[in-house]
Structures are given as structure tokens and as C-alpha cells.
Design a protein that fits this description.
This protein is mostly helical. It is built from nine helices and two strands; from the N terminus they run αβαααβααααα. It has a single domain, classed as Lysozyme (Orthogonal Bundle), CATH 1.10.530.
């Protein structure tokens, strides 16, 4: 049996058939999703359901937690939603080619620095990522463009440049987040209960 057929069969049998139609954004893959050890079967079942949901439903699932955590850190929840959209498209098990993980794509070095034990746990990932974004906002005097650039390229690169670094990926990241920020502001903030 060819490898592709066997791979598709495994996806269908494992209940992850919805992933076949997912086109990850460049630099993001879902390689680790099939190699996870199942410790809590109920959590694994919830994760499979999340992976198969359409984008809009995945967004709605994280919105209450994002809104609460963003407000705790005095961040615009729509901004956080935009970061998640650009980083992982709301796939909690997303992995980048550079090793960043989870909804907010936190890399292993930053995860250790933030004390994040399980970057693939959506609640922990959001809490650490939102807290980190708030720290970057404070570090750059409230300048969200520089904070977003630092979230993508690292604070030392932004400090050295004194502006958004001349890195194409970082410039695209900042531009994309800003575009999605307005979209999420109009879409979710109208239904937010403050």
C-alpha cells in the first residue's frame, strides 16, 4: 500500500479526517499531532474535535478566554485574536518549522523563560503568550508596532534596530496582524460583554 494511502487511512481511522483539507500557512505544520502521547482520553477527544472545526468555530471557542486574559493584561482582545490568527490560525497543536508551538506559537526558549511547561495546552499557551505580549508592549513604551515586531523577531533585534527590523517575515507579520486586528475588532468586540 503506498505511503500516501496509508497516511490518509490513518488520518481517517484516528478521527482526524478534517485535517486533510487544512492548508497550513507557510512555515506552520501539524507534524506533531499524530505523535502525541494520550494521557487524558477526554482531552484528546476534545482536541480532535477542535482540529476538525471550521476556522470561525475555533475562533469562537477561544474568544472568552482571550477576552478575559487580554483584559487582565490591559491588551485589546482583538489584537490577541489577530496574533493567534497570523501565528497558528487557531490550531492549538500547530508547530512552526523553527519549533514554535501552540496557538500563539511560543518558541522553546521563550517558553522556558516564561515558565511555560506545556506550550500545546491552549489555556497555558494563551496565558503565557498574552503575558509576554503585554511585557513587550511595556518594554517598548506602549508602541504596539514595535511590540509585535519583538514578538516575531525578538526584543533584542528590535532594540538594536530602533524600529521594526528590516526582516521580511517580521514586516509581513506586523502588517498582517494589524490588518486582522481591525477585522477582529469589528467582528468580536461588537458581541463582547464587558
Amino acid at each position: 500500500m503506498p505511503r500516501l494511502t496509508l497516511g490518509l487511512l490513518l488520518l481517517i481511522v484516528s478521527g482526524l479526517s478534517g485535517m486533510v483539507f487544512y492548508q497550513p500557512m507557510s512555515g506552520v505544520s501539524l507534524e506533531g499531532t499524530l505523535s502525541c502521547t494520550v494521557v487524558d482520553p477526554a482531552a484528546a477527544a476534545r482536541q480532535r474535535v477542535t482540529l476538525c472545526l471550521p476556522l470561525e468555530q475555533r475562533q469562537k471557542r477561544v474568544w472568552p478566554l482571550v477576552r478575559r486574559l487580554a483584559r487582565q493584561h490591559k491588551l485589546d482582545p482583538a489584537l490577541v485574536m489577530a496574533v493567534i490568527q497570523v501565528e497558528s490560525r487557531f490550531f492549538p497543536l500547530a508547530h512552526s518549522h523553527r519549533g514554535a508551538m501552540g496557538l500563539m506559537q511560543i518558541n522553546p526558549v521563550t517558553a522556558r523563560h516564561l515558565g511555560l511547561a506545556n506550550p500545546l495546552d491552549p489555556a497555558s499557551n494563551l496565558e503565557a503568550g498574552i503575558g509576554y505580549l503585554a511585557k513587550l508592549r511595556d518594554l517598548f513604551g506602549g508602541n504596539m508596532e514595535l511590540a509585535l515586531a519583538a514578538y516575531n523577531a525578538g526584543p533584542s533585534r528590535v532594540k538594536a534596530a530602533g524600529k521594526v527590523p528590516d526582516i521580511q517575515e517580521t514586516r509581513c507579520f506586523v502588517k498582517s496582524v494589524r490588518g486582522h486586528w481591525n477585522l477582529f475588532r469589528s467582528r468580536f468586540m461588537s458581541v463582547a460583554k464587558f
